[in-house]
Amino acid sequence: MGVNSLSRRRFLLGGVAVSGALVVGWGVLPARQRLNSALPLPTRGGVALNGWVGIAPDGKVQVAIPRSEMGQGVHTALPMLVAEEMDVPLSQVELVQAPIDKIFGNVAMLQDGLPFHPDDTGRLKAAVTWVTGKVARELGLIITGGSSSIKDAWEPMREAGATARAMLVAAAAAQWKANPIDCRTENGHVLHADGRSVPYGELALIAVDAQPGEVRLKSPAEFRLIGHAQPRRDTPSKVNGSAVFGIDVRPPGMLYAAVRMSPVIGGTVARVNGDAALKMPGVVKVVDYSAALPQRTGAGAGVAVIARSYWQARQAALALEVQWNEGALAHLSSADIDAVLARQLDQEDGYAYYQAGDMDAVAGRAPGVVRTVQAEYRAPYLAHAAMEPVNCTAQVSAGKVRVWAPTQSPGFAVEVAAKVAGVAARDVELHVTLLGGGFGRRLDVDMIAQAVAIARQADGQPVQLIWSREDDTTHDVYRPAALSRFSATLDAAGNVLGYDNKSAGGSIAHQFLKRNLGLPAGGPDKTTAEGEFDMQYYFPNQRIRHVIVDSPVPLGYWRSVGHSHNAFFKESFIDELAHAAGKDGVAFRRELLRQHPRHLAVLNAAVAHAGTPSAGRAHGVALHQSFGTIVAQVAEVSVQGKEIRVHRVVCAVDCGLAVNPNLIAQQAESAVVFGLSAALSGVVTIKDGRVEQSNFHDYPVLRLDQAPEVETIILPSSAHPEGMGEPATPPVAPAVANAVFKLTGKRLRSLPLTL
């Protein structure tokens, strides 16, 4: 890393220390504990032994779950951590929604957002990571995202289970007047060496006051649940239809609401005539909710119709006569945005996220340089297109607010509901339902603000707000559009002497923090350059920079965030360099990974398992690390006319210790399909300030007959568990593009991939 880059980073990241010695002193103090909560655990008749674990009279272990279940399997994986340490079957664990308390804040997600290279082992990184962890504990942001659920819960949930177990053993030993060392636990019981046994349920009341003594976490060699495939706990209810998603909520007396939002980005309501709508069947009220919204919510201004059924509300909303103030973006187009990205990239140096060696010397055609390879890559805006429509149910009555929401951000949901309703946060009761897909869209809470604003005018009745698919596609918070330029110099032997990469695009973090925390935009945003600056390929001279370009289009976190497009840029260009060097893409990568044996092992595993492609097909390879997890993919592809067909994807994964291999394989399959949808057809374009795509006919997702066979290989590891919800998405697009190049000789440098 260059001196200038290091100094700038120290300045930017050290800005938190403006209070000098006070902050330094605070920084070295122990971090806030994550075992005991300020709010009681809702144990449903049981006894809480700490903030995470309670025991019901029948011996069931009740576990607080602070992360949202959106298909990734946290309702199975998280209770496994507690069940393992408490020696109870997974079937004996009941799930309890965690209260809004700081011990449930997501620490790992904030630490992972720091813009450090994975190979950086310096004191600055260690110090900033430590302080960020402390800040995260103080903030207590309860968020499901960043593939961080297992990573963040790995220690606190196991410690909560081990502590509860030690308290139960102490209680049994006291009851028997025995030495705790002569007691052990098994199958929800405490057993004595002499054969005596007592179930947890009979010990709970005594255990509350018991001193746990030394609390010891199990070693991996002692695991009986962790590391072994377990069936998903939510599968039966999803199969028989009893699972409750946000759209399934039915409180007594519930009404429905449909919205009309400005078709132009940033537009507002000028005038509305609801006379025709009010005469339609089932219509209760027409509501202009715009004035009640905080200025920093996402979807913003609009008009709603409240009716006795959703169909009635939707038809009446379409009948509204609305005039819009289209605002300053009425003539915005994708071409305008692309031109600004290119201009900014031409004019600005950008922030250097990583640099090594002397790029200026290489750029000056240092001795040995015989060839320069340059390329420019592009990626479009993308919508989330989750299967469950955007929805929220809210009730405002007698100074209290009840909200039922499929949200990834319970803390933000409570805050915005309180603000819109004009009540204290303690007067908001939040019920987090299952999510029919999140992918980052439900980190934002604009739909919750809308629902509460509408419910304020429903005379105390609960109202379920549902967006149509068209509402969702045209009023999303989108994956940023991005432009990335590469330049590399090679010697006569095909060795890369210099590697220069500069990209441009909007900052999700700047917009998200302003929307949800009211923080001003500023400073570097790791997500803009992640997947480019933090690669493990070795080049003696390299420089990776990014230019943040303020986006007029609302931006949000999209599954795998910056990695989703930066992996395509980087892994495609690596393949270009291999071709320019006259080398096989796999052999070329192996040379660059000599200092990273874990990455090399993942690459080798994927290639070996893939074998040779069938006749008429080609293999494309990509390797990428994101959210701590290393993934290599081999895509088997054919080209028929102008159609790119992906038949098979081999996915090798090193995610640290595999808590539940079953879930890991499912997430790999899901991420491949999600990534392929974007790679082959995903694009959002802007014309006259409007999003042109509206539904699955012009924003398609992969169909069943297009889905490839996905084979997942999990490499054994005893390292700390890393993320798995997102890391298999980024390598898909470049693996397919690299296969297409082998088949056609055409280098596809823009997403989606089209011939």
Low-confidence stretches: 1-22
Which architecture of the largest domain does the CATH hierarchy give at level 2?
Answer: 2-Layer Sandwich
Q: In CATH's first tier, which class of the largest domain applies?
A: Alpha Beta
Strand order of the largest sheet: 10-11-8-18-15-16-17
Give the name of the CATH superfamily of the largest domain.
Answer: Aldehyde oxidase/xanthine dehydrogenase, molybdopterin binding domain
Q: C-alpha Rg, in Å?
A: 27 Å
CATH fold group of the largest domain:
Aldehyde Oxidoreductase, domain 4
Could you explain how this protein is built, in words?
The chain crosses the membrane at residues 12-29. The protein has 755 residues and is α+β, with helices and mostly antiparallel strands. It has 4 domains: 3-30 and 107-139, no CATH class; 47-106 and 144-238, Aldehyde Oxidoreductase, domain 4 (2-Layer Sandwich), CATH 3.30.365; 246-328 and 391-466, Aldehyde oxidase/xanthine dehydrogenase, molybdopterin binding domain (Aldehyde Oxidoreductase, domain 4, 2-Layer Sandwich); 334-382 and 478-744, Aldehyde Oxidoreductase, domain 4. Helix content is 32%, strand content 22%. The strands form 7 sheets. Strands 10-11-8-18-15-16-17 form a 7-stranded mixed sheet. It has a 5-stranded mixed sheet with strand order 13-21-20-19-14. β19 (482-490) and β20 form a beta hairpin. The longest helix is centred in the N-terminal third of the chain and has 21 residues, at 156-176. The model is unreliable at 1-22 (pLDDT under 50).
